[in-house]
Amino acid sequence: SSLPRAAAVATAGAFFAGGVASCMRIEEEVKLDYKDVLLRPKRSTLRSRSEVSLDRTFHFRHSKRSWTGTPMIVANMDTVGTFTMATEMAKHHCIVAIHKHYTVDEWKQFAAEQPQAVPYVAVSAGTSANDMSKLDAILSTCPGVTFICLDVANGYSEFFVSAVKTVREKWPQHTIIAGNVVTNEMTEELIMHGADIVKVGIGPGSVCTTRKQTGVGYPQLSAVIECADAAHGLGGYVCADGGITCPGDAAKAFGGGSDFIMMGGIWAGCDEAAGAIVERNGQKFKQFYGMSSNTAMKKHAGGVAEYRSSEGKTVEVPYKGPAAAIVLDLLGGLRSACTYIGAATLEEVPRRTTFIRVTQQLNQVFG
Ligand code: 5GP
């Protein structure tokens, strides 16, 4: 229909109860996930994938730093955001958001033994006083670390915004990644209070049960598109966090305007991920769990507090061998996507992107 856009946000249930206006709204505009689209191929002058560069240089709004690398970040989950992973990912110029459960001494040792990996790691922290003082201790002990990942499940609280502001004031020259949010106004809010990169995603993760437990979320590709637009208007960046299951999803995230991508599950079966290999019926697996799963809460907080429920799963994923093979598969897929759409660099990808809405992604005849 040709309804004006404003009318698309329908007031589905405005009614008065005891004189109090209640206004439940439904946004009718279609919101998309990676599975809902494909990238339209376009004519190009590129002759080979080897002509595509996946390195990009970023200039951060607040820290005033520049950083060059491949903008893939391994998630700060204690299974994959490990120092071993960081040592490997640095070879590919990718970042690891190190999980927050290493001690200051372990950080010191890592920085001394793997100095080449230091520009490719981020220190993670939540908003607790304990996290804040540990963040200060790590940054003071390891001056080469320039990325801070401030991470809470719900980036919408005022308390979180003020934590971002405090860390920004304390560490003016560090690049702050903050999240998670899924809407434009909160992306702007975080950037205005000191974030250089806003992490986007509520509920899309492979071991996340937030949508099931709370009914809250936002289709990830639309969240990325809308937040990227808001961030870029303010000279900030976004990082699409969660729900990337294959190189094609990564290409779509960049196509939607994401500057960085964060992935957890994709690395879970690697040698560099923590967790023992389990063998069952001749097949090898590794354990993987969400950071607010029962498993993680038992490990780090002595159990699930009574007032909350677990919002993460524990799973076993097939063993995949070295992370390098997955990196090469991802980068190969991304280079090929760039060739199909005619983008010589990652930065050009959004400009060369037209998404086509689809009802089918893959031919499943052979499973
Ligand atoms: P994946 O790449 O595995 O699809 O998503 C990784 C992301 O899932 C993480 O970066 C983080 O944002 C999110 N995540 C990790 N653990 C949990 C959890 O226990 N609950 C929820 N809701 N999200 C999680």
TrEMBL record:
The keyword Magnesium does not apply. GO terms for molecular function: GMP reductase activity; metal ion binding. Its EC number is 1.7.1.7. K(+) binds at residues 203, 205, 208, 211. Keywords: Metal-binding, NADP, Oxidoreductase, Potassium, Purine metabolism. NADP(+) binds at residues 48-49, 100, 151-153, 202-203, 291, 307-308, 336-339. It comes from the Eukaryota. Signal peptide: none annotated. The active site is at 208 (thioimidate intermediate), 210 (proton donor/acceptor). SMART domains: IMPDH. One of its GO terms (cellular component) is GMP reductase complex. GMP binds at residues 241-243, 264-265, 290-292. Residues 32-361 form the IMP dehydrogenase/GMP reductase domain. It catalyses: IMP + NH4(+) + NADP(+) = GMP + NADPH + 2 H(+). Belongs to the IMPDH/GMPR family. GuaC type 1 subfamily. Catalyzes the irreversible NADPH-dependent deamination of GMP to IMP. It functions in the conversion of nucleobase, nucleoside and nucleotide derivatives of G to A nucleotides, and in maintaining the intracellular balance of A and G nucleotides. PANTHER family: GMP REDUCTASE. Homotetramer. This is GMP reductase. It comes from Chrysochromulina tobinii.
